[in-house]
Amino acid sequence: MGRVTLFEVTFGIVFMLGMFRSNSANATDTGSGLAIAGEQLDGESLIRMGQKMNSTLLKLLGQSFVNFERKINEKICKIDPCDQWSPWSNCSAKVKNEFGFRSRSRVCWLEQQNACNRTGKQTVENENNFCEGEKCPPSYTSYNSANTCLKLVGVSLNHSAAENFCTQDGGHLFNTDTEEKWNASVTILLSNKVTTAWIDGTRTSVSAKWVFLNGKDPVANGVTSKWDSGEPSNGATELCRAIVKPSGTYYWYDRGCSSTYSFICEV
Ligand SMILES: *[C@@H]1O[C@H](CO)[C@@H](O)[C@H](O)[C@H]1NC(C)=O
Ligand SMILES: *[C@@H]1O[C@H](CO)[C@@H](O)[C@H](O)[C@H]1NC(C)=O
Ligand SMILES: *[C@@H]1O[C@H](CO)[C@@H](O)[C@H](O)[C@H]1NC(C)=O
Ligand SMILES: *[C@@H]1O[C@H](CO)[C@@H](O)[C@H](O)[C@H]1NC(C)=O
Ligand SMILES: *[C@@H]1O[C@H](CO)[C@@H](O)[C@H](O)[C@H]1NC(C)=O
Predict the structure, then answer these.
(1) What phi, psi does 63 have (nearest 5°)?
(2) What is the mean pLDDT of residues 230-245?
(3) Last residue of a domain, one of 117, 134, 151
(4) How many angstroms separate the alpha carbon of residue 23 from the centre of ligand 1?
(5) pTM over the 0.85 mark
(6) 141-198 residue pLDDT tens
(7) Are 199 and 242 in contact (CB under 8 A)?
(8) Where do the C-type lectin domain residues begin and end (predicted)?
(9) Domain check: are 253 and 163 in the same one?
(10) Nearest ligand atom owner, CA of 70
């Protein structure tokens, strides 16, 4: 490498100042015969300049910038060896005035030698915090004890059309898979004087297991059975679950899926 002359040092400094100035003004410095508008002041571009101008000094300065940047980048990866956080999950509390949890996670490479190239052993970090549920959407009522938002739809539809209807609200047919949810379903049906309504729950044959699109099997989840005596009656086509009040009390009934009833949507 040739010796750096005083002229080159002076020129280099003047040149760099010129670059700073024209960068910040986002202008074109035509005075030196070089168009550098908008160009990033980084080591690579100094090296390119140096090559273009055959300037040892610029190449030297450029190379030291490149090395400097590499060191800074390595420091940054070691200080923050993790990818970005995932978005927060939805709050476990659904209705306003209820508090729940939400969580997010990210992947980290905690072994120093892997921090920059993101290879090798990964560690997943989780973070949780409190959150408040949001208000129920318009036309839905909040049932705080069941932590849910419900709507009784008075239109009579068959079971699958009812599920589709709820889906259009971003919801689903209500699954009464906790005692609180069962109570909420009784409350909403009583207050609307509805005696039969679809809820979540279908089976492919009378001997098959009940399947729920949302939540769990209520009894498996600890809900005491709400089947009326003699129910499910297991009629060959009675493959969908409803809530029915034959006299004073609401119960689960199996009913033919193409029958049309009101239904309860949950969001
Ligand atoms: C660059 O400079 C060196 C020495 O100063 C010279 O030998 C070489 O020919 C020059 N190259 C160009 C492309 O001008
Ligand atoms: C979170 O809520 C939004 C809006 O209600 C919904 O579209 C999305 O599917 C939910 N995400 C999860 C993971 O439940
Ligand atoms: C990642 O970097 C480390 C040290 O910096 C090195 O030993 C390892 O081989 C690199 N792995 C890959 C896949 O480049
Ligand atoms: C459900 O309602 C019944 C009758 O009103 C009540 O006795 C019971 O405590 C309620 N259960 C829950 C979990 O709220
Ligand atoms: C349910 O209703 C929809 C819309 O009216 C209809 O297309 C579908 O065939 C019905 N399904 C059953 C099982 O009755």
Answers:
(1) -65, -40
(2) 97
(3) 134
(4) 28
(5) no
(6) 999 999 999 999 999 999 999 999 999 999 999 999 999 999 999 999 999 999 999 9
(7) yes
(8) 145-266
(9) yes
(10) 3
